[in-house]
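Subject: sequence -> structure tokens, single chain

Hey, anyone have a minute? Need the predicted structure for the following. Not urgent.
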Amino acid sequence: MIKPIGKNILVRKLKEPEKRGVLILTDNGDRPFRARVLDMGSKVEAEVNLQDVLLMVPYCGARIDAEDEELMLVTEKDILGIVSEAYP
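Reply:
Had a minute. Here:
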């Protein structure tokens, strides 16, 4: 596992929930995406906790290929918000 340092945050990119009855023709990646917090560096000042689901800016961070997951190292400036559990 990777231990982030400084202000870096290790997240796992989440797959978007499938929507039935909707045809999506492109996945251009320019939309915000969701990611779960796995670990944080010691200098992170953002109001995030482990296991929070974050809404992230598109094209952010450094991608890390792990077996079946897409991990990323991001910074606080890449976070748009924390997704509420009530939000699908």
